[in-house]
Amino acid sequence: MVMQRHHLTRAGIAFALYLHHLVSAIEVPLDSNIQSELPQPPTITKQSVKDYIVDPRDNIFIECEAKGNPVPTFSWTRNGKFFNVAKDPKVSMRRRSGTLVIDFHSGGRPEDYEGEYQCFARNDYGTALSSKIHLQVSKSPLWPKEKVDVIEVDEGAPLSLQCNPPPGLPSPVIFWMSSSMEPIHQDKRVSQGQNGDLYFSNVMLQDAQTDYSCNARFHFTHTIQQKNPYTLKVKTSKCHADTFCLFFPLLLISARGITETTPSFMYPYGTSSSQMVLRGVDLLLECIASGVPAPDIMWYKKGGELPAGKTKLENFNKALRISNVSEEDSGEYFCLASNKMGSIRHTISVRVKAAPYWLDEPQNLILAPGEDGRLVCRANGNPKPAIQWLVNGEPIEASPPNPSREVSGDTIVFRDTQIGSSAVYQCNASNEHGYLLANAFVSVLDVPPRILAPRNQLIKVIQNNRTRLDCPFFGSPIPTLRWFKNGQGNTLDGGNYKAHENGSLEMTMARKEDQGIYTCVATNILGKAEAQVRLEVKDPTRIVRGPEDQVMMRGSMLRLHCRVKHDPTLKLTVTWLKDDAPLYIGNRMKKEDDGLKIYGVAERDQGDYTCVASTELDKDSAKAYLTVLAVPANRLRDLPKERPDEPRDLELTDLAERSVRLTWIPGDDNNSPITDYLVQFEEDRFQPGIWHNHSRYPGSVNSAVLRLSPYVNYQFRVIAVNEVGSSVPSVPSERYQTNGARPEINPTGVQGAGTQKNNMEITWTPLNATQAYGPNLRYIVRWRRRDPRGSWYNETVKTPRHVVWNTPIYVPYEIKVQAENDFGRAPEPDTVIGYSGEDYPKAAPTDVRIRVLNSTAVALTWTRVHLDTIQGQLKEYRAYFWRDSSLLKNLWVSKKRQYVSFPGDRNRGIVSRLFPYSNYKLEMVVTNGRGDGPRSEVKEFPTPEGVPSSPRYLRIRQPNLESINLEWDHPEHPNGVLTGYNLKYQASTTTCLSSPVNGSKTGRTLVENFSPNQTRFTLQRTDPISRYRFFLSARTQVGEGKTIMEESPALLNEGMWSSNCFWLCCGVGGGDGTCMSRKVQVRESVATTLPATTAASTTTATERAPAATTKQELATNGSSIWDIRAMANSNWANITWSHNYSAGTDFVVKYITSNKTEKSIPVKAQTPSSVQLANLTPGMMYKLWVFPIWSSPSEHSYITFTTSSAYTKNHVDIATQGWFIGLMCAIALLVLILLIVCFIKRSRGGKYPVRDNKDEHLNPEDKNVEDGSFDYSDEDNKPLPNSQTSLDGTIKQQESDDSLVDYGEGGEGQFNEDGSFIGQYTVKKDKEETEGNESSEATSPVNAIYSLA
Prior knowledge:
The chain is extended and about 125 Å long. Strand 38 (about 425-430) and strand 39 form a beta hairpin. With about 1350 residues, it is mainly beta. It is built from 13 helices and 98 strands.
């Protein structure tokens, strides 16, 4: 329903564009007085269902209710002709209603009144129609008599017993029983079909042990009719030769004639069938098969999965039920029947048609004279429904011509409407499967302006605050509203004033000069109306002197100031808070006009104190903190503190009707002053033996007057409290009995709520023992409908609960619960509003519109349901959605239903976390306390493409030293059409002359792009020792998705690589005296991860930032951290430090970049103290702190370091590569060894005196030989024992225990005649033998070969 106030020319403007520019129609206020005065065409509010089946034993009621002004009159048609109610004495019409009542108490046949009825509601402004009501009388015909013969069937053969029940209205419920009323057991072999027949997949001998009778139960008459029972005779083959049965027991089944058979279908017949179903109903597909053994049934849908969330298998998988069928459920379904002998299938082609359903249901239209509007009636169905317009119940083509009305298919456009154009329009949408009928009236109103606000309003506002003056109004045409001040002629709008279209006048900042009387005037062509609003501007409330922070000694007097200035015409209230909770003003405190005094300050008084000064319009507050100092520590330092002793000698005095004085003697405080006394009581009637808190008193008193309740037998005890804890309770006092009285209060927490749709449960909090005031406590419960004319109902109960039954759905009730005992009743209770039970909502949200926001979110709008249809308290609107399919072919998706809640009465929301590039379906419901209402029309929408998820995996394999193979899988969620993959990778090389950690060099990042179908890639390595880091991501047209990262595995152990690199390098320059220092530095680097600045490390090709060190200040306990070192590379740094904190101390390493990005890393206790920082930015300067985890860093105790720049060169000269340098070192060392061997042979004649028997081969395991030599003859060139020959003929040691640690320990090394250091090259065992023999002879060079093998 929309309207337009300006006339538009149609020349050159499309009709659809014209409709788009129409604006909203007039909204009538909900004020009942206004609605009762305005003319209104009829509206149907209640009617019977279209297919109306009635019980023939009852009177017939055909409902038709309508509203309008004037009150409508009613008439009926039957079978398309006028139905004269007055002529039939059995038929009457309810007063002020159109409901027909057909009375059969005086006789008559209900069948005579079957037919099609339609109700007409008329008044001066139009005629509204009900739907056509098809009235039918329920029928339960008798079973036709028939003779049933005995059925003979072979064992193992299939069988179906037909039921053929008599046709009833509605159809009866069928079930099978024996003649003795025992239910027939059903399973996958024996089951009942949907047509009522009983099917046997194969007959067995035990099936003949009972008979079979079909029973029909009719709904309205509640009768059961039984068909004559079937009797079965099962024929079976028997063994004719006992010897055969005795010696061949395994062939007994075959001898009896039961042969295993393949399945065949008993229903439906053939290999295919078809079925038509209407949208929104349940589809039931059935397949029943025979066979031995009984076949299993499975269901499938051709070309896809069975509809998720709406399918259910029934009748032992023989039936497939699809609930709430929609168009996408059409297609071919097939059932597969199988047993061990074979399988067979049947295809069912399902076609989904649809009766008409609303897309846009026409709504009532209220216009002013001269305004434009339109009625829209859009429906859908299969086949497409035809739209027919009627006006006042007659076809619009036959109605009198109306020049202001134009009909265009499903839309009626009104232009320049005038008084007298009011009418009721009907839209009929129909196809072969049904019809829809909707009424919508067009009412042209001519109403003078009316002011809806109360007269002479008074608005108070604080100076300089924003305020708003309201003046709601109504009229037709819509009036123009203007504001005036103090009767002046200038309109108020602009500057400090802003006038809103709804009639409100807003002031951005109220000033003193804005006080006065404001007049709002509403004007249209029919007249004007006005109202006055008086505005008063008040001074703000301000605390001119508030409390201040103070430090007080325990036991002193404290004064907190709170002086307030406020508007004298407003009532001022000053309250105090302690620690943001209301302060209890006890006998130690005194509240004054300008402050608060506290006498005898104690430790418990420490905290925040807030003074709050408030009026009805504003408030101000001020806060201060009180610190309480205890007794000086030197007086109590050596005295142990404990809980106080219990009070003693309790005494009751000043006995009165409602009070008593309790006195006690305090116990010892045990060096901690008593701060409180807690008084508890126990009574012996309601809860004997249970103690309750009565009151609390300061620790400075030992006597108190206790308030008492009637009809309680009291007993008291006292507990003392100090800062350590509470004492044990004192010995109880003597008992004191108070007299009874009528209750003085009523139960609290009274509420009424329905637990079912036809009841209301009234509950309350019962009175306790000190509130009962007398014996036989009970409660008088009263309730009535929220109507002053209604009568009260009452019930007296003793439990705190009462249930009222047979209540209407969600109706407000007035409830009262009054306490009563034997002494009388409590005062009259307050009235509480409760509600009866809720029922499910009757209507679904309409006009659901979906707007795609991005690839994972959509915005929803909908038309809210009418409040009358909610049948309860509106909780939320709920959108159910599910992913129906992916826009990518052959991609399986989960169709699990999800929902998003939109609390409250709203008409828009956002659904997020959707999968991109998918087809979604969505439907809306409204929810109350009972549950969901009916579902709206299913909406479909696609989501656009997004970025993909990461590939499922990335696998790296190294088949040899020259290449790396990569293999990956497609992303789990493509989220669109994949356009390819991006692979980024970096090489990291460890050189021989540097450590594995700090000596690595990272090359630049290389990028490879692949097609979407490629999932393999082979990388040719530039060298055999580099490690690679790979980053792989998929991409769509939208962009690049998430990345998966993997590293190639190391080819060699990094520690062994460092050791071998050291020996190779030292073999070249062993005579310069630097090898030992290099070796020690390498060992230190491996052991502590601290980089050493050596000549070797400076030759690496990887640039590294210099180390930064500092010494930290001493801590308060004398411990300190010093020698903080940071050795940084381009993207990581090693941090080490020294300290003398206790063992087990955890530390925190905190670092900040130059662009203020801060990170902290906790470091567990370890020795040595170190940590590596990863993922640093190349070329960035960092500040770094190291401090214990329980402290904070000092502002000036940081160090700075800068990471090296990133490298851009990936290809370098081979002469600078570590592996090449190592290879050259090894070759040079081998040449040097060969030269030494030749020199020794030449100088010593080629032999060393090793042993007497020189023909015996050297055996390294011969430990009995203490000394000897071996020959350097040609035959000794054979491989030594326990050694193995490589493919190139070099000798390698099979197994070695040698390590860097062995070389760095032991005594002084031995030197040759030329002073060169050779002893370090020997293995540990040779070293020990040499030292044990104290030989001055140089170690044999052959041992060096062993150490290098």
